Amino acid sequence: MKKKRLRYLIFSTILITCFVSGFTSCQKELMTPMTGDNTAVVEAYLLAGDTSGYVYISKVLPFSDDTVNIKEMISGLNVYINDELLIEVDSGVYRFESGTEGFKTGSTYNLSFEYKGNTISSSTVIPVKPSGFTSSSSTVYATRITEDDSTFHPGPGSMMDEVELTWNNDDLAYHYLMVEYLEDSADYINARLADTEFPFNQATSPTQETYFKIGMQNLRYFGSYRIVLLRVNTEFDDAFTRNGTNSNNLVNPNTNITNGFGLFTGVSSDTVYLEVVPK
Asked: Closest Cα partner for 56 from 101, 17, 102?
């Protein structure tokens, strides 16, 4: 699959949110005083080998039912990565061209821009590619369950062999696994669940383990799947697993953005494919 689609999968699957109940409860220590009017939220995932990367910059909005799914983008900024000016390709979306070789593993990328009297900055290193990523099978078989099937099935689908995904991790790096259904429309293994909207894309939490098993709880459809293993940095794990809605995290949300919120981070990936076919 093309890098562009993988970049979209990463961005659409990962959600970085600063939960705010009145912005003053979301202050960070040792920073220029911030308000909702002068604070930016940054989201950027630089993928190893990609020849371009995108930085999304938005405003902090008070948390409520009306704003939870809304982003107010910040346009007109001069955004730099490694002193190169980014191109604004859409409102609040800034593109960085990394050259024909793409983002290089082991290289450092520094982000900076001015906003409302503050210098917002961050830095990340592109991690090396995941090592030894394999799947125990490239094909798994499942029995199709029709609407008039009276047989008891102890789960959302039919019984199938689990697929074990393994990789090397001698240095206890963080990894993040995504499973993407590649078909345009759903071909349900269990037709009786056709009115249920299961997500086409799924993801794990960051882990330092070296394996993960998938089976009928993850695979709801017949067809092709892409399974992407990302090697991620510590700042990714901090933002993903340690932010939340408890009072401590509202006061000091985890971020690697100086004078702002969000995440600017490098990732690398490897991919395997899986087919789910009827018996």
From this structure: 17
